[in-house]
Amino acid sequence: MDSHAITRASTDFGRMHRNVPSAVFRPPSTNSISAFIKLSYESVEPFPITARGHAHSLHGQAQAGNGVVIEMMSLNSGAINNENANSFGCSSEEKCYIDVGGGELWIDVLRKTLKHGLAPRSWTDYLYLTVGGTLSNGGISGQSFRHGPQISNVLELDVITGKGETQTCSRTNNSELFNAALGGLGQFGIITRARIILEKAPKMVRWVRLLYSDFSGFTRDQELLVSSHGGDGDKENEGFDYVEGFVMMADKNDGNSNWRSSSFQFPHHIATNNTILYCLELCKYYNDRSAKHHVDEELEGLMSKLHYIPRMMASKDVTYMAFLNRVRHGEIKLRSRGLWNVPHPWLCLFVPASRILEFHDVVFKGILSRNNTSGPLLVYPMKRSRWDDRMSAIVPNEEVFYSVGLLRSAVYDWEFYEEQNREICKACERRKLGVKMYLPYYTEESEWRRHFGAKWSVFLERKSRFDPRGILGTGQRIFPFPLLTSNLKSTALI
Ligand code: FAD
């Protein structure tokens, strides 16, 4: 057995959880995955199987203690590429698409589609994540307010269920499996192919940052920008294409562990140790030099409505590729300083817009201000109507909600940050803020039940249908292994 593969599969980007698998399987084809799952499913003593994308999970979700980890990225290599992947086409709804393998990295999807002047329209901030990995969660970034998360931009999937059956599914064909798998935390099947919606790729991006000294002005402007957007039916050139934002607090490493600290220059330095600043990040896509003039004009109009600190605006023009792949530069810098492969006690939350000011007071001004932090602190709005409630992903029960990402790194003291994360979650619960966790990691069944709320019984029903022996995705720690029908029944009744 390849001991390096075992070591690799025992850990993840979070570097806080370690579960040694019994074996690592590098599938030579998608059929072999199906045969392998069938072997476990039909066995008297089934064994757990977890798909591993790029293992950029934070809390052991892509691990399989005492089970088998399937390395999905091994399907990408040359001749054994997924049989059905990488074909372009247009659907009956006139949507262009590409079929990609579940183990492909988004950066490779971007490179392939750009060659044809096309690109997916919904992204994650970082592109070295696999298609199957982000579609099992949601896949969010500054385009989500407009196009929805990545799971809202999929037309069709091939999924191998926990019975080893390969099924093709879409919104209209076998929709229960389609909805289960998208945002399904790897619980219902292994995604081997996804048909992703494409749009004409812009060539250039005007990338703007604006500084705010007060949080309410910052969020008011963010909400103004996302609410003035009607969505898919919009004219091509209307509004911003990307809206994000982040909080700037005293940083333990002087910003050295923050991949967002970049070459943006503000007119003068106004941050002091005790100031919290807020940075709104906006983008406008365009195609060529002649369009640049229109971009200037339109941006002037849009920005005149915003309330940032006068003159605290910086912008630059970069290629679409450079913009989408922006985190890579930060990664390379952090790697060179030995600050990339360190523990990452991240906490990602969705906070209803109606409670974001209270959240800010309790978390940013309260809990986080007690000590210096390190890593990006993202805050940006999304719209519930861009998510499909039939899918497994969970979002707050309010049209506008914020994605809050406390993406901290900790060289020595990750337990301290994890404890602080628990304190934040408890404070949100006590105040009944209606917060939902993104990239959830719970250990107690009662916590999962609370997380899924009214969708818990649907989740259980889908589990009993598509993975009745609970073979898949044990690293998420949602169900006991092996799963007995009585487990599903009793848990549903509680
Ligand atoms: P893995 O960690 O390998 O797997 C994640 C889960 O999906 C596991 O449960 C695994 O079993 C399951 N899985 C993997 N492949 C498949 C498959 N083919 N079929 C079924 N289940 C599968 N997320 C965002 O939404 N937006 C961001 O901007 C963003 N930025 C990030 C930046 C960094 C630096 C990092 C480390 C993470 C970021 N994430 C972001 C989180 C990321 O989307 C998730 O951690 C995602 O799961 C990572 O993808 P992966 O390929 O590494 O998946």
How is this structure best described in words?
The chain has 15 helices and 17 strands. It has 494 residues and is an alpha+beta fold. It folds into four domains: 73 residues, Uridine Diphospho-n-acetylenolpyruvylglucosamine Reductase, domain 2; 113 residues, 2-Layer Sandwich (Uridine Diphospho-n-acetylenolpyruvylglucosamine Reductase, domain 3); 235 residues, Vanillyl-alcohol Oxidase, Chain A, domain 3 (3-Layer(aba) Sandwich), CATH 3.40.462.10; 49 residues, no CATH class. Strands 4, 5, 6, 7, 8 and 9 form a six-stranded antiparallel beta sheet that branches. The chain has a four-stranded antiparallel beta sheet with strand order 11-12-10-13. The protein has a four-stranded antiparallel beta sheet with strand order 15-16-14-17. A hairpin with a 4-residue loop joins strand 7 and strand 8. The protein is globular, with a radius of gyration of 22 Å. The site of flavin-adenine dinucleotide (FAD) has 36 residues, from strand 2, helix 4 and strand 9.
